[in-house]
Amino acid sequence: MTTFTETVKEFNSLVQQYKFIEAVDKFYDQDIISTDNSNEPTKGMENFRKEVENFISNSEVEKLELLSTIVEENLSVAHWHYIFTNKMFGRLDYKQISVQRWRNGKIIQENHFYNLG
């Protein structure tokens, strides 16, 4: 049986390999609620998957480094360093904290915190 820590490691590994859609399909709940900073949340798998596909089609990732993680019961926190070029926003280089709540091996809620300025 896979432990929760192993599940989180596998999820983070897919993200580090830029396998975003694979990570979405395998680790996100149908009722996912995902929020960036204080923006309106994206709700539901269909809307969330469209957001991820939009990011992929409009961005060229240069670096995606996992700096640190915390794994607790049904909660994971990851500190990321992103560098990518987005067609709308240009080149972005920032650090992000991602907090995920899990249930039954799936992410049910996540919040991303970052400052682009």
UniProtKB/TrEMBL annotation:
It comes from the Bacteria. Gene3D superfamilies: 3.10.450.50. Residues 21-108 form the SnoaL-like domain. This is SnoaL-like domain-containing protein. It comes from Leadbetterella byssophila (strain DSM 17132 / JCM 16389 / KACC 11308 / NBRC 106382 / 4M15).
